[in-house]
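Worked problem 6 (solution included).
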Amino acid sequence: MQPLPLHSQKVTVWYWLTAAFIVGLFFFEEIGPSGLVTCTVNGTRYEYFLRNQLIPALQQRGCVDSTIFMQDGAPPNIATPVKQLLNLHFENDRIISRHFPTAWPTRSPDLNPCDFWLWG
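Solution. The predicted structure is:
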């Protein structure tokens, strides 16, 4: 009899929601010995995702210059390469995040359109 795993398998998925469209779903996965496995999001993976997935998708829609980028202050979101990339494409005045002029509110209840529309 196989013992039950200590933790269930998890999926790390990301998407972008605007008033006009949804970009995504993007899964954070890596190739392991037995195929694709989910992985933890860190600053390097998040910066790679922004640079190679999200920003090109927004550029393709022609909306980078009018986008306000909002994210919480999770450690991967405020890694130095991530902050530099965001500032390059969105500039300080269109970024809502910790360590930017418009900070994500401290102890925010994280109520946003995702909480309301996707998982109620």
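Discussion: The helical segments are 43-60, 80-90, 113-117.
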